[in-house]
Specification:
The complex is a heterodimer. Chain A is of the alpha+beta class. Chain A is about 25% helix and about 30% strand. Chain A has one domain (about 15-130): Hotdog Thioesterase (Thiol Ester Dehydrase, Chain A, Roll). Chain B is elongated, with a radius of gyration of 18 Å. Classes of the chains: A alpha+beta, B alpha+beta. The interface of A and B includes residues 19, 25, 29 and 67 of A. Strand 2 of chain A pairs antiparallel with strand 2 of chain B.
Amino acid sequence: MMALPTIEVGTELPPLEIEPITRTTLALFAGASGDHNPMHIDIDVAKSAGLDDVFAHGMLSMAYLGRLLTSWVPQERIRSFGVRFAAVTPVHAQPTCTGRVVSIAEDSATVDIAVRLADGTVTLTGDAVIALD
Amino acid sequence: MSAVAVDPAKAKDIHFDPRVVTIERGRLRFFAQAIGETDPIYSDVDVAKQAGHADLPVPPTFFFSMELESPDAFGYLSELDIDLRRVLHGEQSFTYHSMAYAGETLTLRPRIVDAYSKKGGTLDFIVKRTNIERADGAPVADATSVIIARGNRKDAR
């Protein structure tokens, strides 16, 4: 296995800053992810549901958190990965993914992870367990 | 109308046929492009193999997309009389047992593991867990989704 970065309680993962989410990104993610819910790609449907505009798939933001983790440790080190979707991500929002090691057990480390928008809104929170053995 | 819109026993009794999904390289490249993934192990087979992988790895959240391969992926919500326009994805988690690669054919076995209501029945929670395994039964990953239906109870609207 590849060498691991330094992992201690308090270690911050290198943040992952995402470009503002475009309508093109949402269309591509709809096709690539298989989630064709029109609330993410069709402004007419979003308006018919009382919203001003489309919003991003929650799983797009979780995929960004996946990138945060796999750019830090090899993917085969990830034992588990879970999130709670706390707020929607409007189109054009600019997410940043962050992570911090909060505990270390004998053979694993737990990382708290989050996605924040430029206006401070926290859209996803969760954690991941990374194998150290 | 009962106090609880979703009957937990009925939810847990919903039968899902196992789903067999073959992972395609092109689909994984498309997914990598859509999420802005720049690490070439997720799009270039040669780089992936040089890094010790059997082929392009299935990235951590793609297992959720495998669940959506069904033409009627949310049919189980209709079976529970849940209004699809009022559904939110509340939580998602994955437990990983082994890496999966392009070219593999995996079997998905979903089931409803829990269903409950909060806020006086105005919020219904459905917990679905999908075990993902190889043909020989070796576990690859487990995916758990919490689906929230808002104001599903007709007399709560």
